[in-house]
C-alpha cells in the first residue's frame, strides 16, 4: 500500500495522523497549529506543508540545538516558526504542563503531540483499511492475511488495529528501541478506544537504535528499489521490509500468505539519512 503517493509533500501516514487534529482546530476556530519533532521530522515537514497549502500558520518545537538540515530548510521555506528546545527541554514534552507557556505565547493555536500521536492521530489512520480493501480486486485478492508497517510511536499501528477489530493481525516493525515505549503507547491508545490490547505484534527492527543505518541495510534497500522500482527510505520502510524478510526466512510466515505492506512515506528525509551513513 503506497501511502508515499498520498501527496507529494503531506506524504504517507502523516496526512492521516494530522487529519483529526486539523479538523479539531478548524471546529474550535483555532488560528494556527503547533507541534514537536526533530531536525529531520517527517511529521513537522507534513504539518508545515499543510499550513503553507491551506494558509494557516504553524509552529515547530524542535529537539536539540539549532542546526541546518534539508528538513529544517524546508520548514523555514514553508513558513513554520521554529523554536529549539535543547535536549532537556524536549524531554519535558510529556509533562502535564508542557504546553502551557506555548499556548500563552501562541494563543488559539492547536497543539499536536509529537509525531501526530494520541487518540485523534490513531483514529485518523483508520480509513487506511478502507483504502486497502478498495484496491484488493485490482490485484485479484478477495481478502488478505496480515498487515505490515513500520512503527515509530505506534500511532498508525494502533489506528489500524482499531479499524481491523480483530479481522487481521497487524505487525509493527519498531524503528526505535523498546525503551522508547511503543508498546506502552499502543496499549494506552487501544485502552482509550475501549479495546483490548490485542490484534497486533511488535518486532524489533531498529538495528541498534533510531536512525541507525548500516551497510547491510543500505545494500538491501538499494536491491529492493532496483527490483521494485519504488523509492524507499532507510529509517522506517527499509527496516520494516528487512524485518519481514527475516520473518519469512525464519519460517514464521505460512506459505501462500497474502500480506499487505504499508509504505508510510518519509521520503523527504531519505537523502539526509543516507548522507549521514556515508
From TrEMBL:
* N6-(pyridoxal phosphate)lysine: residues carrying this PTM: 14
Q: Which SUPFAM superfamilies does the annotation name?
A: Tryptophan synthase beta subunit-like PLP-dependent enzymes (SSF53686)
Q: Which cofactor does it need?
A: pyridoxal 5'-phosphate
Q: Does the keyword Magnesium apply?
A: no
- The active site of this protein is located at 41
Keywords annotated in UniProt:
Pyridoxal phosphate
Q: Which Pfam families match?
A: PALP (PF00291)
Q: Where is the Tryptophan synthase beta chain-like PALP domain?
A: 30-265
Q: Does the keyword tRNA processing apply?
A: no
User: Tell me, what is one Gene Ontology molecular-function annotation carried by this entry?
Assistant: D-cysteine desulfhydrase activity
Q: Which family does the UniProt entry place this protein in?
A: Belongs to the ACC deaminase/D-cysteine desulfhydrase family.
Q: What is this protein called?
A: 1-aminocyclopropane-1-carboxylate deaminase
Source organism of this protein record: Pseudomonas marincola
